[in-house]
Amino acid sequence: MEEILTPSQVAALLQIHVKTVYRLTEEGVIPGNRIGRSWRFNKMDILDLVSNKRRKQSKYGKPIGLKKRRAAS
Prior knowledge:
Number of strands: 3
Strand content: 5-15%
Structural class: alpha+beta
Helix content: 40-55%
Number of helices: 3
Order of helices and strands: EHHEEH
Strand order of the largest sheet: 1-3-2
Largest sheet: 3 strands, antiparallel
Oligomer: single chain
């Protein structure tokens, strides 16, 4: 059976803030399912996301894929 994670568990796994998990989910970067008012995530999907990002690195060792946010004007 697949392990299902809460946003807090995903944040701990990725070592990011829980608000970042929500933002990345809304942007479509992190795959998740909304059940009622709650978000749930498949652990294997999250681990695949991390391993794919690790493989997609430039020749200079910098990650590719996540865009930097622009400073508010």
